[in-house]
Amino acid sequence: MTSRNQALFDAAQRRIPGGVNSPVRAFRSVGGIPPFLREGRGAHVWDEDGKRYTDYVGSWGPLILGHAHPNVIRAVQDTAARGLSFGTPTALEVEMAERLCALLPCMEMVRLVSSGTEATMSAIRLARGASGRDLLIKFEGCYHGHSDSLLVKAGSGLLTFGHPSSGGVPDDLARHTLVLDYNDTEGLERAFAEHADRVAALIVEPVAGNMNLVAPRPGFLQAACDLCTRHGAVLIFDEVMTGFRVGPRGAQGLYGIEPDLLTLGKVIGGGMPVAAFGGRRELMEHIAPLGAVYQAGTLSGNPVAVAAGLATLDGISAPGFYEALEKRTRQLVDGLNESAKRHGIRFSAQSVGGMFGLYFAEHCPESYAEVMSCDKEAFNRFFHAMLDAGHYFAPSAYEAGFVSAAHEESDIAATLAAADAYFSKARR
Ligand SMILES: *Cc1c(COP(=O)(O)O)cnc(C)c1O
After folding, report:
1. What is the mean pLDDT of residues 24-34?
2. Within the chain, what is the greatest distance between any pair of CA atoms?
3. Distance in Å, CA 115 to ligand 1 centroid
4. Residue 239 Cβ contacting ligand 1 at under 6 Å
């Protein structure tokens, strides 16, 4: 059997570490060969062997309107025809900044960057620069991009400082990051009691989407907000994934909490490299050239990328957009839950807006430890059965999934039928 996917993956591995430009794409967690995708339309993608899949990854979140949405493609083509980059301010950037500030109450000023990693890295530098403090609080299992301060895991004891979770990150830097348990309000209170006046910032995914999906327990985000306010620390909501994904105002709208700083990415670029950080004016005025916190980018605010983002923001502002997206996503998770239950499979699923989590466990997890105790092998078998049947879920038990506005009821129904066929045979 000659497979173009296989041949490409062989070639890729000779020249690109692991054959991929971002590790999770290599399928190491689930095993096997990743499909090399060459085309997407609406809810569907095609690989280099011509096989079609219903896509529940959506480029890991950005494609909320589906693949190759005509308005987004037209915006990109029209803008590109006038030049790709100028390195000067452009009108499109102003439009994007005004739109973001109008949509998100906490956003008084914003700066555009090209990746979520840059957005969180810069927000943390800003928080440290503005507060004159160094200590950062983050939560185990939350991912905020791959900058040094954030590739840190919990130390061995409670409230001990973090250790690097990647080679190449100095211990000395990791010691400035305290890693706590997500959804553990008491742990958070203890950390502030001990380190109160040293905490520059707390960064959190308000709905965690990088350890599968973990929703915040009632009160957890409010406690984080109150503690930051009381102790003069900057509250950073990392909404690179949840922004315009879980609702029209992201997670801050869903839970009614306004962070001091907010990071965005994914959806606001609609598949192109646009991300942003912003928030309270008095904080943002510390950014160069107004203030002493340096941040820059040759391609920041790139007009072609911003045009794709603006067209995507147009799409999501259609009346009833989020109600429809939420309903479709719930159709998927409800159907999977029912089917698994009928066949006696230990499985649960949940959704928030247009993102969802699937767990081979009795209940939806509320902590990193609970996510880690899900049956990974059972997920991997499910994943490959679904992939064979033409339904592409995230290739890891620790990633959230995404539904787009292009997914129709019939797409979801076909996926549910395939899952039901699998569950009926998987019963032990
Ligand atoms: C994807 C993601 C990032 C990193 O964004 P990149 O564009 O991949 O650098 C940061 N934070 C969260 C919550 C994300 O989901």
Report:
1. 95
2. 64
3. 7
4. no
Cβ atoms of 396 and 29 closer than 8 Å:
yes
Backbone angles phi, psi at 295, to 5 degrees: -165, 135
CB under 8 Å to 85, separation ≥6 — which residues? 299, 302, 303, 304
What region, left, alpha or beta, does residue 7 occupy, with left being phi > 0 and alpha being psi -120 to 50 degrees? alpha
Token code pair at residue 349: 């699923």
pTM above 0.90, yes or no: yes
- The vertex-204 CA angle with 275 and 200, nearest 5°, equals 95
For 46-49, which contacts have Cβ atoms below 8 Å and span 24 or more sequence positions? 47/5, 48/4, 48/5, 48/8, 49/3, 49/4, 49/5
pLDDT number for residue 157: 63
What are φ and ψ of residue 339, in 5° steps?
-65, -45
205 lines ligand 1 (CB under 6 A): yes
Measured distance CA(243)–CA(250) in Å, rounded: 4
| Cα 144 to averaged position of ligand 1 atoms, centre (Å) | 6
Q: Is 204 in the pocket of ligand 1 (CB under 6 A)?
A: no
**Pocket of ligand 1, candidates 147, 240, 242: which has the most ligand atoms within 8 Å of its Cβ, to mutate?**
240
Residue 187 clears pLDDT 90, i.e. is over it: yes
